[in-house]
Amino acid sequence: MTGKDDLNINKLLKNPAVLRVTDDISPVLSERRNYSPPVCDALRRKYTVLKETGRYKFTVDKEARRQLPSLIDNKIRLIEGLDSADETLAKAYGRPRNIGIVFSGGPAPGGHNVIAGLYDAAKKANPASKIYGFLIGPDGIIENEALELHDELVDAYRNLGGFTMIKTGRAKIDTRKKMELSKETCKKLNLDALVIVGGDDSNTNAAFLAQEMFADGVQVIGVPKTIDGDIQVRDDSGNVLCAMSFGFHTAARAFANSISNLCTDSSSDVKYWHICKVMGRVASHLALETALQTHANLTLIGEDLADYVDKNRLKKAQKQGKVDYHAYGMTLRHLSRVICDGILRRAAIGKNYGVLVIPEGVLEFINEIQVFIIKLNTIIAEYNQTHDKDFHSAFALLDDKLEYLRRLAQRSRKNLTFTLWNTRDDDLFNDIPAFFQEGLLMERDSHGNFPFSQVETEKVLMDLVKDYLNILKDEGRYRLGVKRTYYQKTLAQAGLDPARFGAALFENYGQSEFLLRKTSIISAKTCKQALVKEGLIKKDDEIPAAVDKIYKKSVPAFKTQIHFYGYDGRGNDPTRFDCIYTYNLGLTVFGLIANGATGQMAAIRNLEKDFSKWEPIGIPIAPLMHLEERKGKLALVLEKSIVDVNSVAFQVVKSRREKWLAVDSDEDHFRRPGPIRFSGRSEEDRPITLELNALASQGD
Ligand code: FBP
User: Fold this and answer.
1) Could you give the C-alpha distances from 234 to 605, 614, 624, in angstroms and in order?
2) Active-site residue numbers?
3) Is the CATH code 3.40.50.450 the one for domain 35-246+574-638?
C-alpha cells in the first residue's frame, strides 16, 4: 500500500458513514439497550408485600425435612403491590441492603435482565443499596471475587444475551470448607441476601446455602434459569406454579430458525439428510419445541422412547406363556431401525432427503446406555473416594481406563458379591466404538452430571443407521421410488414400451405414482437378468440406456450433514418473552428479599397466559427436593421436569408425526418460524409448548 492510500484510508475511517457502520454499537444493540420491558402490576407499585398461601400442597421428602429443617415448612408466597405503607413497612422495605448475585451453570438468554430488574428495584427502594455481582460463577462467592454493579454497567447489558457482565461457572459449594469460605465472603461484604441464578442443581445448592446461612440472617433466593426448560414446578394437584425456566424460549427459537433454514435447503437441493442434535442435557423439551416450530421430518423425543414397548415381542412371549422384559424400553439398535424406517419410507416416494432432530440427552432414555452411565458414575465416584488421585488423572488414556474396568470384571468372577461391573458389562462395553467409550467415561461435572453435550450421540446413531441402510440396500429394500410419469416419458422417448418394461422392473407398476424397483434387482447385473427373463432383451444385449438411467435413479446414496445446536442458541440475545420474563423475575427477587424471604425461588405464575395475568410469586425450594442418584450415591436434589408424554404439546407432535414425515407426493409441511425479532408484530408471545399445554388446564 502506498503512502497516498494510507492517507486516504485514514481520512475514510473518519468519515461519519464509515464510523457509523463500523461502530461496535449496532442499531439493534441500541434498540435493545433502550427497551424497557413491561412490568407486572404488583411489581410496579412502590412497595410489595408477601401473602402466604396454603392453597398449594407438596409431598415432602423425609430426608428434605431432616436436612433442611428451617426451610421445609415454607409456603408459596404471592407478591402483592402497595402504593403506600405504614411506617414500619416503609422503613423495613426501604432500608439500604447489600445483595450479591451469581450466575451458575450454562448461560441462558435473559440473565442480564434478572440483574437489571433486581438492580432497578433495589435502587428504587433505596439508592444507597449495593448490588454485587460474583465473578465466574459460584467460585466468585467462595473466593470473594465480586464487582459492585453500577448504572453504566447494568445499562450496557439490558436485554442482551449471554452472562457476559459477570460470567458464569459450574462450581458447586459442596464441601464444609467451601461453605465456610462462602459464609466468610457474605460476612465481609455484609450481605443481606445472596441470589443464585441457576438450574436444578444450582437451586438445590441455593436451598442448602439458605439453610446454612439461616442463623446468620443471610437470605438466599434462587432464580429458575436453563435453556433446557427442565425447571417447571407444579404442586401435588398439578397446578402450574412455574411453567418454564428462562432462556428456553430464546434457545428453542434460535435452534428452530437454523433448523428451518436446513429444511428449506434440504428440500431444495434434495440430496442430504440434515442430522440436527439439539441441546437439552436430559429432557427433550427443546427438541419438542423445535418440532412444533419447524415441523422437521423426524424428531426423536427421549421420554417417548423410554416408554416404548415392542408389542410383537410381547405377543410372541405371551403365546409361549412367558414375559419378555427386553420388550420394554428402546435399544440403540432398535432406535436406529426406527430412523431407518422413516428414511426408507421417504425414499420410496423419491424423497432421499430430510431433516432429523435428535435431542442431546436421548441416550439417557436408552436402557442399555443408561445402565452403563449409572454403573460408570458409581465406579468413578467410588474410585475418587478411596484414592488420592482422581479417576481421570489416574487413568489418563482410554486403554488405561478399559484395563481398570477389565480388572473389575475379573474381580466380579472371583467375588460373587461384587456385581457393579461384570464380564458381560465388560464384553458389551468393549463392543462399542472407542469414541463412544471415551464419551461414556468422560469426567462428570461438579454436580455429578453426565456431559451429554460432549458425546457424539448423533455419530453413534448415524453409524448404526448407515450400517443398516447398507444391509437394506443389499436386500433391495432401500430404493428410491421413481415417478411414474418420468419413467414413462424416459422410456417412450427411447422408443421402448413402458408397460412391458415396467412389469419386469417394478413391484408396483400400474398401482402407484412412485415405482418401486423389485427387491430382486440390486445391481445392473440383476437388472439385466430381469429383462432377459422377461424376454425384453437378449442375453448378449446391453441394458437399454433409458432403462439404465431409470435403474440408476432408483439407487439411493445416503448423504448426511451433521449439525449441533446448543452453544449458539444459548448465546442468542433474548426474545421479547425472555426479556420481559427475566426483568420481572429480577423485580420479584427484590420483592422476596425486601420482605424477608429465604430458601425461595422467584417465579412468575401464568406465563402461559397473556401478560396481564402474570403473577410474581416465591416458590419454596425445600419441599420440591427428593433423593436421586448422583456421583454413585443418593443425594437430595431438585427434581428435573422431563417431557410429559401425556401433555398436549407432546400429543400434538405425536399426532402430526406422519404428516411431517410427508410420505406423499406433496411438498413437505415445514413451518417457517423465522429469526428472533425483537420488534415488530410477527414475533410470537411465548413458546408454543406453553400455549398448547395451557389448553389442558382450560379443559379444551
Ligand atoms: P444448565 O443446565 O447449566 O443451564 O446448562 C444447560 C446446558 O446448555 C445443557 O443443555 C448442555 O448439556 C450443557 O449445558 C452443556 O454444558 P457445558 O456448558 O459445560 O458444555
Assistant:
1) 11, 16, 9
2) 228
3) yes
